Design the sequence.
């Protein structure tokens, strides 16, 4: 309950409240604003602390404290024996300007033009819907893409590992760390990638990053200038496309055929690209696997043209039939490929840890770029993740999730066969964390996704990942993430989706 | 103990080892390399699985697994009834090229020119000593700068808060989060800054970042183009200077006088600067406080010229005499100031959390920049920090550290008076986490720092923070961080420093 103590002092009004802010601070603030607004002009005398304390019914110490602060900051001057005065050095003309421009709303831009950099202008022009999380509230609805199974993550194990690290906190996890990452984690990641993904790498080539998005941002900084050409798959992951577009790159959208990335098309469009960004093991979002001959040809193009290949290996841990396909990076003997991977899919997205494998001669420049971008990733998180890997929890968790996700995909496929016949064709996929549901011809997938949203179903239309001009007429599709949802949620989601799509 | 099983197959040699890698995988790898090297040409027949298994003394299933993988990846083709062949679609000319260029060393760049972006070239040219942590091993020696007291941080409380969050893990901390930060943390930071630093802000203006360095990187991206002029204090924090230099800005180094940042000098040099980066409350590293009239004049310059002021308020929590000075941002009614602060000094550096307060109309563009830089900071860390603040631990910890650091500074000053007389003058400071020790005239501070390092003392010479040309002859200095070290360590450090500096 606010108590207002008001007093009419010679030149100004003071209103104090019982908020969380100390009284002396409120008084200081009021006096400061009064001085800055010009109401109390330079050299004018302030009331004595005794007088003001009595007027405001506060202790004299409170007023002394407020005056001390104003004194320390140069607003007022104490002239011994003769009282306290507003400082004479306040440049009055500035204060008048301030007075005119001062408005109650804080932070609002007034009286000035907001000028951004070229990159700032590009960022401001982006479609921000795609740069923000779909939901900021506490749950995600089926078929939100990109989420692992939260109900199956061993939080108890994770909590134990965090607790152990915090109890024996070491200086190397407390102060600043290596921009390229916590050394033991770089070793664990190198060992994992050599075995699981046939990546050719030493620990020194591994750069720990805050998720794949940061790897892409670093690559754009270090390798791409404005107006450089970048080949992107069409459709593709928007985070990658936007990272290069924000850097001012000219994007060439390259269609896909059965062998993946259409190199012929790309060469025909602009063979002098600086960089090709691809998802060879499981194209996002269509799931195509890039053929071996296409992989070799792409590497040869990069080698011959001093260009770069970014291999975004975003979900290769989850291959359900056959074995994981080896990485494209493992075929490259010339340091043309930068390999990017993430723990967002295998641990959880909000951890914000990923990795890149860069040619040895680029490690220093990527470390420098990381140091200036944000120094390094949180050290305790990196140490806990190292423990999680080295103590076998990571491999075990991936094995369990591979089985669980295969089951969940099967549930989705069979529920879709039953309830979505004629509305959405949902073919299975040998890998990944999502399926593409194909709409009948001539149905706009944005409208379909909108109808689904009205039924509480989260799904992204394929066309948001697609760039014009399309190489050929393509059917609309919906991206259906299934890994985060129980069999019951999936079946229920399919029913609601059927309801949404009926009569679109 | 490795067991080598060798066999001379018709065209190739296979050597298997009992490493951690499964036998089938070793076989697959060997065959793959043999095919890619051209030793096994296209269409050549492979031995039968039965034959090869016998030759290698492995189970037939092992060979079948290896062949299956090669088949899946397109290296070989199985022609039903007639055996297995190297694929005919392998583009031979590529394989020959690969053969010539292939070298055993992984990741090494061969046969190609490494071309970087302009920014990449600038990053590669930087002095990397300054972009890396001073030490990556497990301890920091006196007088390492920028470290809070590790022995006084309440890790038990922190561990309890982490554990509680992990046990009741919520979806909002698991999936992707808001690029601008975890909402409750933005509210806590806004409340803290309003009270403690007189910052004018709403929670919506707070952007949580991965430390002050990321704030500077985002600012450089959003506001600065190549060739734009940026005013920096001289000397200044290198992370800030480098962030703008990496973005291609022309840096104007502005000297300091008793009132801080010399605005006259700056205006004379280039009044059309886009941005001024300052540390008004406690200049880094000299400790000067920017006078009120200088603050007002700087804001007026920014307003009139559509320019920006970056207020890096890096250590204002630690003011030992008088009260914390209000922020410069609190004087700005026109949205010219971007306020930057960090939890690296108040919690610990390796947590990688900080904040910026931006004018309302820039929140969206900074969010977009953050989304494309690295999505957002780890959500659990943000939630735990929120709990730490909201449950009073943060305020309590700062209060305790303020007392402890004041003590430690007093120990340093008095030890220096006793043992460093004539070698290094170490005046006290009303604020901060370091002191500047002043060397006698004509002593090169880089040599002094080198001598100190030989005695196991970590100290940065003032001149590394200084840009040529210096406005006036300046004495050399050493930066002495004292907050992370016990009284004993400080006294011992001073003795070793005395030994180091004697006879320099």
Sequence:
């Amino acid at each position: 309950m606010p108590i207002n103590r008001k007093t009419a002092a010679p030149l100004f009004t003071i209103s104090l409240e019982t908020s969380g802010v100390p009284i002396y601070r409120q008084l200081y603030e009021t006096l400061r604003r009064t001085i800055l607004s010009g109401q109390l002009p330079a050299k004018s005398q302030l009331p004595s602390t005794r007088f003001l304390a009595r007027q405001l019914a506060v202790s004299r110490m409170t007023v002394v404290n407020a005056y001390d602060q104003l004194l320390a900051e140069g607003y007022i001057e104490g002239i011994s024996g003769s009282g306290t005065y507003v400082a004479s050095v306040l440049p009055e003309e500035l204060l008048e300007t301030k007075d005119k421009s001062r408005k109650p709303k804080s932070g609002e831009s007034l009286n000035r033009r907001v000028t951004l950099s070229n990159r700032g202008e590009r960022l401001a022009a982006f479609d921000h819907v795609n740069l923000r999380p779909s939901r900021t509230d506490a749950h995600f609805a089926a078929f939100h893409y990109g989420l692992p199974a939260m109900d199956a993550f061993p939080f108890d194990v994770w909590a134990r590992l965090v607790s152990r690290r915090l109890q024996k906190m070491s200086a190397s996890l407390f102060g600043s760390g290596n921009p390229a990452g916590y050394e033991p984690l770089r070793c664990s990641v190198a060992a994992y990638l050599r075995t699981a993904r046939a990546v050719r790498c030493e620990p020194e080539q591994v750069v720990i990053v805050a998720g794949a998005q940061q790897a892409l941002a670093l690559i754009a900084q270090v390798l791409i200038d404005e107006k450089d050409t970048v080949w992107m798959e069409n459709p593709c992951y928007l985070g990658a496309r936007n990272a290069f577009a924000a850097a001012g790159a000219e994007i060439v959208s390259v269609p896909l055929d059965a062998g993946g990335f259409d190199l012929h098309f790309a060469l025909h469009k602009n063979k002098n690209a600086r960089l090709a960004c691809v998802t060879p093991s499981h194209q996002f979002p269509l799931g195509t696997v890039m053929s071996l001959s296409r992989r070799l040809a792409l590497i040869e193009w990069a080698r011959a043209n001093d260009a770069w290949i970014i291999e975004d290996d975003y979900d290769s841990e989850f291959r359900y039939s056959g074995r994981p396909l080896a990485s494209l990076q493992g075929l490259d003997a010339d340091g043309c490929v930068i390999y990017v991977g993430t723990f967002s899919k295998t641990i959880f997205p909000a951890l914000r840890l990923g990795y890149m494998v860069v040619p040895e001669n680029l490690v220093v420049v990527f470390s420098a770029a990381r140091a200036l971008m944000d120094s390094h990733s949180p050290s305790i998180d990196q140490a806990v993740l190292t423990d999680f890997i080295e103590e076998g929890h990571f491999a075990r968790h991936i094995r369990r999730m591979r089985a669980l996700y295969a089951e969940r995909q099967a549930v989705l496929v069979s529920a879709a066969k039953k309830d979505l016949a004629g509305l959405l064709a949902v073919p299975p996929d040998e890998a990944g964390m999502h399926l593409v549901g194909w709409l009948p011809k001539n149905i706009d997938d944005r409208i379909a996704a909108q109808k689904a949203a009205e039924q509480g179903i989260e799904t992204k239309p394929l066309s948001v990942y697609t760039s014009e001009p399309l190489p050929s007429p393509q059917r609309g599709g919906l991206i259906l993430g299934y890994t985060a949802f129980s069999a019951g949620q999936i079946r229920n989601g399919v029913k609601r989706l059927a309801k949404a799509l009926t009569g679109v």
Summary: The radius of gyration of chain B is 30 Å.
